[in-house]
Amino acid sequence: MNKTKDAMNEQLAQAKILPLLVRLAIPATAAQLVNALYSIVDRMYIGHMPGDGTLALSGIGLTFPITMLISAFSCLPGMGGAPLASIALGEGNQKKAQKYLCNAITLLFTISVVMMAVCLVFLKPLLVLFGADAETLPYAFQYLTIYLLGTVFVEFALGLNPFINTQGHTVVGTMSVVIGAVVNIILDPILIYVLHMGVRGAAIATVTAQFISCVWIVHFLSSEKSGIRICVEDMKPDRQILVSTCALGISPCTFRINESIVVILLNRLLLTYGGDQANLHLASMAILSSASQVFFMPLLGIVTGAQPLLSYNYGAENYSRIRQTIHYARILSMGCATLMWAALVFFPEAVCGMFSSNPELILLTKKTMRIMFSTVLVLGFQMINQNAFVAMGNTWYSFLFGIMRKVLILVPLALILPHFIGVWGIYAAEAVSNPLTTIITFAVFEQYMGTLKERMT
User: Fold this and answer.
1) What are the coiled-coil residue ranges (predicted)?
2) Reported pTM
3) How far does CA 304 lie from the centroid of its chain?
């Protein structure tokens, strides 16, 4: 174990940045893309269900805020504790790094129990609040009732995998996701079509897949292959560890909560301004949400690959390697973002056809996709800057830019623009918010890096 750990630490400290970044980012990117398949595969199979596929897709779209909320809270211990564990490793403090892992387990279990209980008790009122009506409510309720019973598996699978990636074991982290995704892809058609379980079958497939991923991750983090291991003794809550974990994790957590809040708001606005096509707009937004997930997955993979390098060298106070990592990460991220943008803007019909065969829905989504994603390519640049704050443990800036794009810019625009251009303003709000956020984040980040250079050199 020590040889493996020392070899990885030596690479983070001394290896050439670009080859190491690519080697870390490729499996992490693959993992993120595969991770997106969980909800996307469900929606693809459900959208093609004979008879009520479009209506069922609308209902599943309404569950997105709650599933995103569950995912968001896994970031509090996962994305908060993992960078701090890596910084501790950079400082040479393995015991402290292990405490971050074990306290994250305690926090994840607590979050799982509370969220499952609260959501199950208030499920129907929440779905109605999110825009469910008599036609879409049954589908949303059936899916979420089963999904919520597996909350602990979802939280552990999503919240503990960053502790594998932060050690540089991105191949193992990728396998954690791939195993679950393969199970989900195999079970979906069997449960939905062969056993005629509909949306219930999709939920059972997802929960089963997350359970298997959870077992794989816990097994690795308990083995000698992991540089920091699960230890019952270190699961005892440590106030200092938990406070620092939550302080840093609040940014990625808030970012995903914002996604949930914004989807709720946009769905309500679509019902208000969509007229007699309101349910069709909800189905279109469900497709756009899935496409957005796919778009962000490669970028998150690059961010995940860069995080161990940034965190370790921040702990070691090596400014030169931090700056090089950010430079190359920006290039890789912008390249991926440009390719994804081109696919969404120039080939929207092919993307829509993956989710539905309804010609009316495909025609509408071709328009909404081109509007909503017209400027999304600039986020390849913005995400590296935003997540570098998280990797380097900067609580305030990571929180500020975690809420900026969605809450501070997009939401006001989504409320204002429909008064001038109707329902299309809801989609245009996303397009306007992207470049504004990118410019502001870049200006602040470069100022921060100047201060960091003075301190470290």
Assistant:
1) none
2) 0.68
3) 11
Contact 141, 109 (CB under 8 A): no
| Cα–Cα distance measured from residue 234 to residue 104, given in angstroms and rounded to the nearest whole number | 10
Please, are residues 142 and 55 in contact by the beta-carbon 8 Å criterion? no
Listed in sequence order, the residues at least 6 apart from 183 whose beta carbon sits closer than 8 Å to its beta carbon are 205, 208, 209, 212
Contact 148, 119 (CB under 8 A): yes
Q: Where are the domains of the chain?
A: 2-456
Q: How many CB atoms lie within 10 A of CB 34?
A: 21
Query: Is the Cβ–Cβ distance between 247 and 80 less than 8 Å?
Result: yes
Distance in angstroms between the alpha carbons of the first and the last residue of the chain: 34
Residue 274 burial (CB count, 10 A): 20
Digit-by-digit pLDDT tens for the chain (457 residues) are: 455 555 656 777 778 888 888 888 887 777 667 766 666 676 677 776 666 667 777 777 778 778 888 888 888 888 888 888 888 887 778 888 889 999 999 999 999 999 999 999 998 888 888 777 777 788 888 888 999 999 999 899 888 988 888 787 878 887 888 888 889 888 988 988 888 887 888 889 889 999 999 999 999 998 888 878 888 888 898 899 999 888 888 877 877 777 777 877 888 899 899 888 888 998 898 888 878 877 888 888 888 888 888 988 888 889 999 999 999 999 999 999 999 899 999 999 888 888 777 889 999 999 999 999 999 999 988 889 888 988 887 878 877 887 888 888 999 999 999 999 999 999 999 999 999 999 999 999 999 999 999 988 7
